[in-house]
């Protein structure tokens, strides 16, 4: 029997902070419908993301993937810069 790993979790979000070296804070927003009140609710989660090349900046849309622990708070890595921020 083959011991295969589950596929890593992917998210897409917007860079909120880019002041740290090789670290970005990315906000991932999701919408879901409340089962009781049937109302659409917006939830935002912030992730500390590793950006090896320091290529993303505030306002950019990026794709991130879950990875091993890189520091105390960093558990995600940036894999792609989807869209640059509009100035």
At the first level of CATH, the class is Mainly Beta
Structural class: mainly beta
Q: What is the CATH superfamily label?
A: Nucleic acid-binding proteins
Terminal residue distance: 53 Å
Report the radius of gyration as a whole number of Å.
Answer: 15 Å
- The helix content, as a percent range, equals under 10%
Strand proportion? over 45%
Please trace the helix and strand order, writing H or E for each element: EEEEE
* Count of beta strands: 5
Mean pLDDT: 95
Principal-axes shape call: globular
Question: How would you sum up this structure, described in words?
Answer:
- The model has no long low-confidence stretch (mean pLDDT 95).
- Strand 2 (23-33) and strand 3 (40-50) form a beta hairpin.
- Helices cover 0% and strands 53% of the residues.
- The protein has strands at residues 10-17, 23-33, 40-50, 61-66, 74-83.
- The protein is mostly beta strands and 87 residues long.
- The protein has a single domain (10-83), classed as OB fold (Dihydrolipoamide Acetyltransferase, E2P) (Beta Barrel).
